[in-house]
Amino acid sequence: MNAAEIEARIAIGEVKARYCLGLDTKDWAMYADCFTEDLEMDTRPAGGILTHGRDTALTIVRRSVETAHTCHHVHSPLMTFNPDGSADVIWAMQDRVAWGPDRQFEPGLTGHTGFGHYHEHYVKQGDGRWQIARTKLTRLHTDNHYEGGVTRPAPLPAPA
Predict the structure, then answer these.
(1) Which residues share a beta bridge with 142?
(2) In terms of Cα–Cα distance, which of 155, 61, 154 is closest to 113?
(3) Spatial contact of 87 and 65, defined as CB atoms under 8 Å apart
């Protein structure tokens, strides 16, 4: 591993740290700056949708978690640097979401804790910043949380 690759690994890690911090603190400018304008966001494997474009994705994410309390953790990145200077990264992830009253999808459901992976493609911009061009969320397991402290495993979506 050379110095440029070490610098790239650190910079990509900082992009993902800003992603989590921006999302969890609802700093939407910070969160949006993590992505290219032509972002492809695929949450279908986790029960969501395929979205094209940073602005569209940001609108959907904001609508989903604006009133929620969230905490996203990522770790153990597997990074592959490509000949074109881009990078592919798989991050292990865990998220905890406590839904706002407007987002409770079934009676008594108060949130979830999910475990899975982000599969992402990063590109280095002309100004030297790395950004996420493609992201796909997959889930290995999700626990749904209900009023009264009851937790039940959630069914996983069918493979796409």
Answers:
(1) 114
(2) 154
(3) no
- 3-state SS string over 13-71? HHHHHHHHHHHHHCCHHHHHCCEEEEEEEECHHHCCCEEECHHHHHHHHHHHHCCCEEE
Q: Please report the pLDDT score of residue 158 as a whole number.
A: 67
The stretch 10-29 carries a mean pLDDT of: 98
pTM above 0.90, yes or no: yes
Alpha-carbon distances, residue 89 vs 76, 146, 151 (angstroms): 10, 33, 31
Query: Dihedral of CA 147/149/150/155: which sign?
Result: positive
Q: Are strands 130-146 and 109-124 parallel, antiparallel or unpaired?
A: antiparallel
Q: Which fold has domain 3-153?
A: Nuclear Transport Factor 2; Chain: A, (3.10.450)
Query: How do residues 108-144 score in pLDDT, each as one tens digit?
Result: 889 999 999 999 999 999 999 999 999 999 999 999 9
Domain assignments of the chain as residue spans, ordered by start: 3-153
Measured CA to CA, the distance from residue 42 to residue 103 in angstroms comes to: 21
Q: Which helix (H) or strand (E) holds 11?
A: helix 3-25
- Residue 133, SS3? strand
